[in-house]
Amino acid sequence: TAGQRVAQDLAGVRILVTAGGTREPLDPVRFLGNRSSGKQGVAVASRAVSRGAEVTLIAANLEVDVPEGINCVRVERATEMADACHARAAGTDVIVMAAAVADYRPAQQVPGKIKKSDAGESLTLELVQNPDILRELVTERNERGAQGEQCIVGFAAETEPDDAARLAIARAKIARKGCDFLVCNRVDEALGFGQDQNTVDVLDLRGEVRASASADKMSVADTILDVVVAQRANAR
Ligand code: CTP
Ligand code: CA
Fold first, then answer.
1. In this structure, which residue's CA is closest to atom 14 in ligand 1?
2. Where is each DNA/pantothenate metabolism flavoprotein C-terminal domain found (predicted)?
3. Distance of CA 76 to the CA centre of its chain
4. What is the C-alpha to C-alpha distance for residues 140 and 166, in angstroms, rounded to an integer?
5. Helical residues (DSSP H) of 75-199, grouped into ranges
6. Residue 1 above 60 pLDDT?
């Protein structure tokens, strides 16, 4: 708020944030999408700017506005998001992958509108896997030998309602992805997506919970950035 001083603990730090949900085109008028609003990712970008960071936001189909002071790159589909991330990753100190990236895209993009008269009683779509952007970015970083220099944060939205089982899923996921931290939250149709509140655990690569928060998405963003700041202070 106006007049309140915010610690500039990310001054000069270059941060790349992805937010929103990708849309995978099916034909000229249809896509496969998801329920991500982009709120949590935009909150991370917004708090990072307030704390002094140079922020680039790779934005996919946001339902929220992007505040001033953020360098915003709009993309639509997963492969565009991948290209936008790869083009900028090497010059970045921190990457926060908050976007909901479609795991699959239609195998073919039909040039004209799919017609009922052609498809008939049922329609089967063939989908192929999208690149795993987070995993690729981690691999690239490690190949550059920049493990200690670039901090990479992934997100995992899980529908598993049991806390212990959800944590186990998240631990397996961060081990698979190899990122420094994984922000895990529970989602279902009423929870997580589109809401202003969020409940998260931030895991490190060893599977330990570094921080937890249940608050508005701006506060949750600060919690995530606190973990990053602490890590960078340790790495120095
Ligand atoms: N992610 C990504 N590229 C993809 C899919 C996911 O970069 N093609 C990123 C997301 O932005 C998120 C993290 O990976 O930061 C975890 O996404 P999630 O969907 O939970 O993981 P998946 O490996 O796709 O596993 P699942 O089968 O549970 O969807
Ligand atoms: Ca996925």
1. 134
2. 10-229
3. 14
4. 28
5. 78-89, 116-119, 133-143, 163-177
6. no
Side chain identity at residue 144, one-letter code: R
* Residue 156 Cβ < 6 Å to ligand 1: yes
Residue 177 annotated in ligand binding:
yes
pLDDT in tens, 49-96: 999 999 999 999 999 999 999 999 999 999 999 999 999 999 999 999
| C-beta of 172 in contact with ligand 1 (< 6 A) | no
Residue 198 is among the residues annotated as catalytic for this protein:
no
Q: Torsion angle, CA of 220/223/228/230, rounded to 10 degrees?
A: 180
CB-ligand 1 contact for 224 (6 Å cutoff):
no
Residue (of 151, 173, 147, 175) closest to 160 by Cα position: 173
Atom of ligand 1 nearest to the CA of 129: 8
Instruction: Please determine, for residue 177, whether its predicted confidence score (pLDDT) is greater than 70.
Output: yes
Neighbours of ion ligand 2 (CB under 5 A): 103
Alpha-carbon distance of 217 to 38, in angstroms, equals 11
Strand partners, 27: 30
- Residue 227: its H or E element: helix 217-235
